[in-house]
Design goal:
Order of helices and strands: HEEEEEEEHEE
CATH topology: Immunoglobulin-like
CATH class: Mainly Beta
Helix content: 10-25%
Number of strands: 9
Distance between the termini: 79 Å
Structural class: alpha+beta
Number of domains: 1
Largest sheet: 6 strands, antiparallel
Number of helices: 2
Shape: globular
Length: 172
């Protein structure tokens, strides 16, 4: 091969690489959601604890209230007291919930995650974005938004608690 052909192909490769670098963006695409959301998952469970993790586009510092409960006719039977998890700078939160005294967890319970502007009291930086009464959470267009009496709104989602070790016998 002549030196001219080698130089020609080298030049073409250099030009093509430069063109591709201009076409392919170097930054990650920012994902956007039309309203605020929360996603939650019960990661693992035993009779004494449920570990959970979640993601949300609520502002960093937002405090989410979590409980474990079950259906009881037209109401809920509470299996845990409330625990709180804070949304971090990347939009994630995690934690663990213990059962109420004298109770144990089992599969198919409900992990409920709720965000309200007032319980617990949210940081001012969060309230400035979601509204003091939750009016900026997305209203009726957001399937996770509920409305309390008056013009107070909340964000809520649930997840099923998985298998909690039922049927395992103690090694004793």
């Amino acid at each position: 091969m002549s030196i001219r052909i080698i130089l020609f192909y080298s030049l073409m490769i250099t030009v093509a690489t430069g063109l591709l670098a201009q076409v392919i963006p170097k930054t990650k695409k920012t994902l956007a959601a039309p309203t605020y959301y929360m996603a939650i998952e019960a990661r693992n469970c035993d009779k004494k604890q449920v570990r959970f993790s979640g993601a949300s586009n609520l502002p960093p510092g937002a405090i989410i209230r979590l409980t474990i409960s079950d259906f009881s006719e037209d109401a809920w039977r509470q299996y845990s007291d409330e625990v709180y998890a804070t949304v971090d700078d990347k939009g994630f939160f995690e934690g663990a919930i213990a059962p109420k005294q004298g109770m144990t967890f089992r599969r198919n319970l409900i992990l409920d995650a709720t965000f309200t502007p007032f319980k617990p009291t949210q940081p001012l930086s969060v309230l400035n974005l979601v509204g003091e009464r939750g009016q900026n959470l997305g209203g009726i267009y957001n399937p996770q938004v509920g409305q309390l009496s008056g013009e107070d709104f909340y964000l809520d989602t649930i997840a099923r608690v998985p298998w909690c070790g039922e049927g395992l016998k103690s090694p004793r």
